[in-house]
Q: What sequence folds into this?
């Protein structure tokens, strides 16, 4: 059996354009899988040019779209956007090809930093997807991508509309887990928008769903979100309690990122309350725990900078006093255990 490379070599020797175009695209696949992304993209560009000459619109769009994706992956964002635009212009409206091209352009623009234009192309991708009869869950996922970009522009009302549509689609399809994740995103957006009462109501709704689904990761996210919402309202005491619950929930769910975020929040709130030993303890305990979760190097890289920053703010004398008080507390605890 010939390899794709051999078939491509044979097609070049034969010089028949259609056969060569398909051989180019065929060989691009194993090249991409083996990490030779630039070479794969070049073959796809060549194949797309041949399909254009042959007026094979579908195949031209497919090759151009794949070349755009590879361009984005290798960091050539201008090339990715240019190819995605060409694919979108060539694709028939309201087809899966139009959806893919618009989505690729949205992704590339988002990575490039143009969140506003990226959100517009996600909306176009959604329009094509709805007309093409795409899966509701796929449309919901695109709505969430669009919402994320809108939120980055602080366009909270539009982001909430997109998230609400996504949640409705997930619920209609019986996708309880994704519906819950979207509700957490809705609650977060409400908090940023300053709708405190609505945010707390949706938090309660999300917490009930997380409990019903026995979802420890959702519970961890929600505890951390609860602390953030309380802090936004300057309810520092309740925020400290929620942050402690968030840290435990993150441990229960084995979520290092949430654990770090909760530890940092506990330390900052304790420092604000002039509880300097607790501020130090949150970071020192976090360091020790993260060693077990991610290893010594990752723990040091994560917690050394905030500890150094705490020393800088407190000064050497107060920092050392907090450190010694924490270490004495730990020593007494070990004595009690033994």
A:
């Amino acid at each position: 059996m010939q390899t794709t490379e051999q078939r491509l070599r044979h097609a070049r020797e034969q010089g028949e354009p259609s056969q060569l175009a398909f051989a180019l695209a065929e060989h691009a696949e194993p090249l991409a899988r083996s990490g030779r992304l630039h070479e794969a993209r070049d073959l796809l560009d060549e194949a797309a040019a041949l399909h254009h000459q042959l007026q094979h619109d579908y195949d031209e769009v497919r090759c151009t779209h794949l070349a755009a994706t590879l361009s984005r992956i290798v960091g050539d964002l201008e090339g990715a956007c240019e190819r995605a635009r060409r694919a979108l212009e060539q694709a028939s409206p309201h087809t899966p090809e139009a959806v893919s091209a618009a989505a690729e352009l949205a992704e590339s623009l988002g990575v490039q930093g143009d969140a506003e234009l990226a959100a517009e192309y996600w909306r176009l991708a959604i329009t094509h997807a709805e007309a093409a009869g795409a899966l509701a869950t796929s449309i919901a996922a695109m709505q969430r991508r669009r919402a994320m970009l809108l939120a980055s522009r602080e366009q909270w009302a539009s982001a909430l509309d997109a998230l609400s549509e996504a949640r409705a689609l997930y619920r209609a399809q019986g996708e309880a887990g994704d519906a819950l994740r979207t509700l957490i995103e809705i609650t977060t957006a409400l908090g940023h928008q300053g709708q405190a009462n609505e945010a707390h109501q949706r938090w309660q709704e999300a917490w009930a769903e997380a409990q019903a689904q026995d979802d420890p990761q959702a519970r961890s996210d929600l505890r951390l979100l609860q602390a953030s919402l309380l802090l936004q309202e300057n309810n520092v005491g309740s925020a400290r309690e929620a942050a402690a619950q968030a840290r435990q929930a993150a441990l229960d769910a084995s979520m290092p990122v949430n654990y770090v975020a909760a530890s940092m929040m506990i330390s900052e709130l304790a420092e604000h309350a002039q509880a300097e030993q607790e501020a130090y303890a949150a970071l020192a305990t976090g360091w020790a725990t993260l060693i077990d979760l991610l290893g010594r190097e990752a723990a040091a890289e994560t917690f050394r900078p905030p500890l150094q920053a705490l020393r800088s703010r407190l000064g050497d004398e107060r920092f050392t006093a907090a450190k010694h008080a924490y270490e004495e507390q730990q020593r007494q605890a070990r004595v009690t255990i033994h």
Summary: The chain has two domains: 1-109+116-126, 210-338. The longest helix spans residues 316-337. The chain has a mean pLDDT of 95. The CA atoms of residues 212 and 277 lie 38 Å apart.
